[in-house]
Design goal:
Length: about 425
């Protein structure tokens, strides 16, 4: 069938799928327990004999893996193959200055491009399309991940990368881009810039938008669809698991099909860690079933969703996840970039003049996210020394950019103006609505 990339896999019967998953899980468990010291230790401490995992239900006995585990084993400690077999490295922000590192073997890259091709085809893309990729290319998995998937389909790929919106629009017009790939907030920003330039959807040639990397709702979808003249689908992924290509919507736009033959999905209660029945909302936990370089067992994504298996008119049989609606930790997603408040704190710790009192305010400026950090500084610096203040501000901006990868606005405020808390401090005010 034309609009399903790997027809046999994506329309597999549930019985076949379960058998497939079990075999792949067992082989992954054997590999990690032999090749990754972290899992060797973890299984030993939990009294797990991987040979006794005989059914998919047994997975609930296995310990979880967290972002902290990846951090503790920074940079290469989670790899299950020698470095000579790693052909690509990406990373994403960690909870403090250090990012989490992920690696891919040649076969992982083959798998990845097929999984991305699946979600792109599900979103409407074909070999006849001109795919405009406005995700950044670099350590972030978005640019390269979607790039290779689109090329694999045979589409013509324009690796525009992010930023310079007017130039993006010129390229879209001149090269006749038919598919836009970026974050939903950037798609809206492009739509707004188009309007500001006195142009409309009739002046561009877009048909589809494949959007992901941050939460967005139906209101934003219809605005993007109307203003850009596209059919917009959501796709989800995280670098620790593979990057984009974990799940994506089909044209039915009712849940994201998870590539279940490569990732085993569970939803847990984040407080008790108990596995919840299908349909209940909780934290998504993913186990990689085919990853060679960095297999992960029961990785706590911190993303809140629910799983459901309906009979989808598109013909795909894979389980669906609802659009992720939030996080169980304090990670913020600012224009697609992940930011932890603890990273902000680490930067401030480098400066003697910074007090421990700060607050992060996140809001929308137009359609883009804006992050402002208000920081109390010492009294004499606040009142007397403007020049010193400016120099300090410049240095802080520089450090924030190098640690966070974005440029927040930093505002110095008078001592004792930020609210004090007796219990856990509230460090973030997020005024955005998705
Ligand atoms: O954002 C991978 C990606 C790139 C997905 C491009 C889709 C498109 P990370 O930078 O590691 O990877 O961030 C992963 O972003 O745990 C979610 O919290 C959030 N996220 C990703 N996709 C979605 C989405 C990439 N469609 C983190 N809806 C994840 C809501 C999303 N949140």
């Amino acid at each position: 069938m034309k609009n399903i990339w790997q027809y046999e896999e994506e329309t597999m019967s549930l019985d076949d799928l379960k058998q497939f998953q079990l075999e792949r899980l067992q082989s992954t468990l054997n590999r990690v327990s032999e090749n990754v010291d972290f899992y060797k230790r973890k299984f030993k401490d939990a009294g797990i004999d991987v040979a006794k995992i005989k059914s998919l239900e047994d997975i609930k006995h296995l310990p979880f893996t967290t972002k902290q585990d990846l951090r503790d084993n920074y940079p290469y400690g989670m790899f299950a193959v020698p470095l000579k077999d790693i052909v690509r490295i990406h990373s994403s922000s960690g909870t403090t200055g250090k990012p989490t590192v992920v690696g891919y073997t040649k076969r992982d890259l083959e798998t990845w491009k097929n999984l991305v091709a699946r979600i792109m085809v599900a979103g409407g893309v074909s070999a006849n399309d001109i795919v405009h990729i406005a995700f950044s290319y670099g350590l972030f998995t978005g640019g390269f991940g979607l790039h290779y998937g689109a090329e694999h389909i045979g589409a013509s790929v324009i690796p525009v990368s992010s930023g310079n919106t007017k130039r993006q629009i010129m390229i879209m017009q001149d090269y006749r881009s038919s598919v836009l790939v970026c974050t939903p907030s950037y798609a809206l920003h492009i739509a707004e810039t188009l309007e500001n330039e006195g142009l409309s959807r009739n002046d561009i040639f877009l048909k589809y938008a494949l959007l992901g990397s941050e939460p967005w709702g139906e209101k934003i979808r219809s605005e993007i669809e109307n203003k850009l003249g596209v059919s917009a689908t959501d796709n989800y992924g995280l670098s620790e698991i593979i990057g984009p290509g974990v799940s994506g919507e089909c044209q039915c736009k009712n849940g994201l099909h998870i590539n279940e033959d490569h990732f085993y999905a569970e939803v847990i209660n984040p407080d008790t860690c108990e596995v919840l029945p299908e349909g209940e909302k909780g934290e998504l936990v993913l186990t990689t079933l085919t990853k060679e370089a960095m297999p992960l067992i029961r990785y706590r994504t911190r993303d809140i969703t629910r799983l459901f298996r309906d009979k989808c008119p598109c013909g795909r049989t894979f389980i669906k996840m609802e659009k992720p609606s939030g996080r169980t930790d304090d990670m913020l997603i600012i224009n697609g970039v992940n930011v932890f408040p603890s990273q902000v704190e680490e930067v401030f710790k480098e400066f003697d003049q910074a007090t421990p009192h700060y607050i992060i305010i996140v809001k929308k400026k137009g359609h883009l996210d804006m992050m402002e950090i208000q920081l109390e500084i010492s009294e004499n610096l606040f009142f007397d020394e403007m020049k010193k203040q400016r120099t300090l501000l410049e240095k802080m901006h520089e450090r924030m950019f190098s640690v966070l990868g974005i440029k927040p606005k930093i505002k110095f405020v008078e001592p004792k103006t930020i609210e004090r808390f007796e219990g856990k401090a509230k460090r973030v005010i997020d005024e955005r609505q998705f």
